């Protein structure tokens, strides 16, 4: 039975960055569930499905097969045999993932893979509903967040570093809309699990957040 760490929180809170660092230091497997949903979202986009065409999500996603491989300890997301790790981090894919991840058919498609990984391995898993739905019995649960302004600035700097030109105001708007969708969706909405530790990283360094979570893990092992 694996030791499971669940990190939940809104978009741009730094979940993936922190989860990767914690997993690396603890020699756990990092499972980025958001990347898996983004792979489904990329598939829907490639099929010509619009973000508002929610009635098409269930049928169209059936043709997507998503798996995870690890190359030199790094997670690679495979969509129908293609490594799409380099294609799933755009704003378009992120917005589609937020919209499509509420669909029961999309969620069911990925749930078994996620739980099997956690049952067989020591994992750090991050997403929107890990501690509340996917791994309700996780050994350590964290709700990681930051202010909308701080999350937007982080995303703005990340995109600027990649040569992408988006306004800070638009990014803030996108984050607020994504927060609303994630927190108000009917199935497994984003919320803090009752037994999760709340961490606001707005004024914390990456190393400080990592250290806080590792301290929690060590206290439970």
Short account of what is shown:
With 221 residues, the chain is of the alpha/beta class.
Which helices and strands occur, and which strands form pairs?
Elements lengths: L3 E5 L6 H12 L2 E4 H14 L10 H4 L5 E6 L2 E6 L2 E2 L7 H10 L3 H17 L2 E5 L2 H5 L5 E6 L2 H14 L6 H17 L12 E4 L5 H15 L1
Parallel strand pairs: 1-6, 1-7, 2-6, 7-8
Antiparallel strand pairs: 3-4, 4-5
Helix pairs in contact: 1-9, 2-4, 2-5, 7-8
Overall description:
By secondary structure, this protein is an alpha/beta fold. The protein has a single domain (4-220), classed as Rossmann fold. Helices cover 49% and strands 17% of the residues. It is built from nine helices and eight strands. The chain has helices spanning 15-26, 33-46, 57-60, 91-100, 104-120, 130-134, 148-161, 168-184, 206-220; strands spanning 4-8, 29-32, 66-71, 74-79, 82-83, 123-127, 140-145, 197-200. The strands form two sheets. Strands 2-6-1-7-8 form a five-stranded parallel β-sheet, sandwiched between helices. The chain has a three-stranded antiparallel β-sheet with strand order 3-4-5. A hairpin with a 2-residue loop joins strand 3 and strand 4 (74-79). Helix 1 (15-26) crosses helix 9 (206-220), helix 2 (33-46) crosses helix 4 (91-100) and helix 7 packs across helix 8. The protein is globular. The mean pLDDT is 92.
How many structural domains does the protein architecture include? 1
Let me know the largest β-sheet: 5 strands, parallel
CATH architecture: 3-Layer(aba) Sandwich
Mean pLDDT: 92
So what's the CATH class? Answer: Alpha Beta
Q: Calculate the terminal CA-CA distance, rounded to whole Å.
A: 13 Å
SSE string, helices as H and strands as E? EHEHHEEEHHEHEHHEH
CATH homologous superfamily assignment: P-loop containing nucleotide triphosphate hydrolases
Give the helix proportion (percent range).
40-55%
Number of strands: 8
**Unreliable runs:** none
Query: Beta-strand percentage?
Result: 15-25%
Q: Which value, in Å, is the CA radius of gyration?
A: 16 Å
């Amino acid at each position: 039975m694996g030791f499971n760490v669940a990190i939940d929180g809104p978009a741009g809170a730094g979940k993936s960055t922190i989860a990767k660092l914690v997993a690396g230091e603890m020699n756990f497997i990092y499972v980025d569930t958001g990347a898996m949903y983004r792979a489904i979202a990329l598939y829907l986009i490639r099929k010509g499905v619009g973000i508002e065409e929610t009635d098409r999500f269930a049928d169209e996603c059936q043709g997507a097969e998503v798996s995870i491989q690890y190359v030199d300890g790094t997670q690679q997301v495979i969509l129908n045999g293609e490594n799409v790790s380099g294609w799933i981090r755009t704003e378009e894919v992120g917005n589609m993932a937020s919209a499509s991840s509420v669909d029961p058919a999309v969620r069911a498609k990925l749930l078994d893979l996620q739980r099997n990984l956690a049952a067989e391995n020591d994992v750090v898993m991050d997403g929107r509903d890990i501690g509340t739905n996917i791994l309700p019995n996780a050994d350590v649960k964290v709700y990681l967040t930051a202010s909308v302004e701080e999350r937007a600035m982080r995303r703005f700097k990340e995109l600027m570093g990649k040569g992408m030109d988006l306004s800070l105001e638009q990014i803030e708007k996108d984050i607020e809309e994504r927060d609303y969708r994630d927190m108000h969706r009917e199935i497994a909405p984003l919320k803090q699990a009752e037994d999760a530790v709340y961490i606001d990283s707005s004024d914390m360094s990456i190393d400080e957040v990592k250290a806080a979570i590792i301290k929690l893990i060590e206290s439970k092992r």
